[in-house]
Amino acid sequence: MRGLRASSLLLCGVVLIQLLAVQIDAQRPKTQWKTLSGFSPRVIARGGFSGLFPDSSLDAYNFAMQTSVLDAVLWCDLQLTKDGAGICFPDLTMSNASNVESVYPKGQSTYPVNGVPTPGWFTIDLSLRALTNVSLIRGILSRSDKFDGNGYTISTVQTVNKEMKPQGFWLNVQHDAFYAQHNLSMSNFLVSVTKTVIVDFISSPEVNFFRKIAGRFGREGPSFVFRFLEKEQFEPTTNRTYGSILSNLTFVKTFASGILVPKSYVLPLDDKQYLLPSTSLVQDAHKAGLEVFVSGFANDVDIAHDYSFDPVSEYLSFMDNGNFSVDGVLSDFPITASASVGKLKTLKTYKHFSASPTWPETQQNKLTKWFNVSVDFLVISKNGASGDYPGCTNLAYEKAINDGADVIDCSVQMSSDGKPFCSSSIDLGNTTMVAQSPLRNRSTSVPEISSVNGIYTFTLTWPEIQTLTPAISNPYSRRFNMFRNPNERNSGKLLSLSEFLNLAKNSTTLSGVLISVENAAYLREKQGLDVVKAVLDALTETGYSNRTTTKVMIQSTNSSVLVDFKKQSQYETVYKVEETIRDILDSAIEDIKTFASAVVIGKSSVFPVVDGFVTGQTNVVERLQKSQLPVYVELFQNEFVSQPFDFFSDATVEINSYVTGPGINGTITEFPFTAARYRRNRCLASKETLSYMAPVQPGGLLEVVSPGSLPPAEAPNPVFTDADVTEPPLPPVTAKAPTPTPGTPSTTAPAPSGQTQLTLSLLLSVFAMVLASLLLM
Fold first, then answer.
1. C-alpha distances in angstroms, 726 versus 340, 376, 442?
2. Residue pair 647/635 in contact by the 8 Å Cβ criterion
């Protein structure tokens, strides 16, 4: 079977080997966990690693076991075939997660499911032998389709058990009543299969199902878990809503030892997708003697804004928030759940925004102890914590500092009156609400900067700019409808460079500031503004020229700018390579070393990406570091759509791959909290290479893709040469003639009218006649 061969290849080292997967003692020793048993929460892999591979495929189950805690539980959605075989398949109907429609185009039927007529291709219409022709494919369209051509077969319960030999096995029976209507008995199948297969958990949303299987498995049988659906839905046996059953947990305890609930039962959200205070469900269930398992965890779906798109933060809020700990999580990405259970378990996720739950002070104090771990790795902000607040505002910078950034950054722009200030774009339309302000008529065309009109910083005075409302960046709003922290989308105020420097100077945790300078030549030639002098003056005025504790880094994509700074100061200079490159010449490196002490490159210059997959690894980082040039990489974001599939929609996995793989010297990130929490992981300080901290094997996932599904080859990225580095010196400052501000009275003299011109002509004629007569005298 190609799937198993591919899986073996993958798991032998072609892709990552247990990246961040925490291998804990199989005996699960008791800890400080506030679970019912005192053990750490269980990681339950829904259909295996179904966030990447087709749900319930053997590769999905195999990969889940290899990247999860040792006692991870494999979840199987149990369905019955026409001849009574038990298979693992995610739903009652098959068209969504298999190619059954193309194999049996006339096989559609319509049956009542919980009283609702439901069309589809049902497992009860096909024998196990007929299903051998059907292959598993992705069931969620937003996930990669590259593994759909691997021909993954549908497996029986016995096959999954035999091939995987899981430490824990969970069978979910979603539609017992439906199968009973078609003379197929789930209870009889379960009693039979448990004679040869160890089943640890059986779950169902139907009360009557538990009544039928009660007492049929003996004292050493599986644990029964009652599955709650949405609160407004009706349980078919009792004809009560699941919400009403929730109020009587002692009733549930009569037939089950645990409950499985959606996330909202524990941490509900308001209509804006912010967290509300946690419910008392976990504590109430524990008092009733019931374990609480929570479903719905996936890295590639929208989560509460409070988590800043970080799935680890979400897991920790359920597992270890100081008030309770759930007993297990059902996840499509068990690697992230495992990392949360294991080495990150003492890193509490505390309050990000005012809407977040309040974390106990003792937990926050524990968190600070992790700062003592020394790792040579810088966390550099990108416009502050611009994933949480409008970039380059006081709130974005303050959050970046509080979140553990080492270096905060300011992209310097110039106002028309020569004030340097922080803004991520020279076009204020990209960073503020200027288009909705009285200054919206200031749009101009500057082809040297952009092919489209904009309202540029150098066309407004600093007092005018201070009146503008900042706007949060939403890079994935149009294509993916993903929005950052909408409650704070216009919060904060823009800072002058001096205000930024004073804010950083007053911090006791920052090690440095990074000041980015672009468009210096244009500003000198066309606007009469010297941004280099403005930056140096601001640094001197705020006392940085004499400071030794706070490092100052000046960054630019222009070598001429850095040469100019180097001539006039002793500040560290950082050269940013804008292009995505596959290599860099020695001569280019030598040129860079003459004016820069560090280099910034893009993520794809380290791990090239084609069609969402990492294709390999360049040697750019290695070559620069061999020449004693530290390498900082940008841009790291938490949104899963910003990451290749190789990183499992987890920003922490991505960061780990860059740090422990090519060994970059720092991340430039819009979400400093995630990078800083990762850096505090004690595993990074270990002298030994731990298996769960191994980096992604570049191009590994593509090795598992069938040849017919491989993405087309793309032209290679260019090699960076010394010609790309060399630039002419910055031009001198050209004084700019004053121009009237639109909408204000002109100060220039009015053009002479026709009558005035005639009068002047006559006067000149008279003057000429008088002068001629005098000369003749």
1. 47, 31, 35
2. no
Exposure string of 317-346, with b = 16+ CB inside 10 Å and e = fewer, is: bbbbbbebbbbbbbbbbbbbbbbbbbbbbb
Give the CA-trace dihedral at 310, 314, 319, 323, to 10 degrees: 120
Taking the C-alpha atoms of 394, 400, 401 and 404 in order, what is their torsion angle to the nearest 10 degrees? 170
pTM (predicted TM-score): 0.87
Decide: helix, strand or coil at residue 520. Answer: helix
Asked if pLDDT for residue 117 goes beyond 60, the answer is: yes
User: Using an 8 Å Cβ cutoff, are 24 and 340 in contact?
Assistant: no
Tokens of 102: 């193309």
Closest CA to 249 of 226, 222, 219, 217: 226
Q: Please give the full DSSP string across 407-438, using - where no structure is assigned.
A: EEEEEEEE-TTS-EEE-S-SBGGGTBSGGGST
Which residue in this structure is represented by tokens 């739950």?
357
Residue with tokens 């448990």: 194
Residue 169 sits at φ, ψ, to 5 deg, of -135, 130
| Count of other CB atoms within 10 angstroms of residue 552 | 21
Closest CA to 367 of 319, 402, 395: 402
Rounded CA-CA distance 622/586 in Å is: 12
Whether omega before 316 lies within 30 degrees of 0, making that bond cis, reads: no
The pair of three-digit structure tokens given for residue 111, joined into one six-digit string = 């049956």
First to last CA, the chain: 122
- Of residues 324, 322, 328, 375, the one with CA closest to residue 349: 322
DSSP 735-747: PPPP-PPTTS---
Cβ–Cβ under 8 Å, residues 668 and 411: no
Question: Which residue in 321, 335, 360, 366 sits closest to 682, CA to CA?
Answer: 366
pLDDT tens for residues 464-480?
999 999 999 999 999 99
Q: Is the pLDDT of residue 767 over 50?
A: no
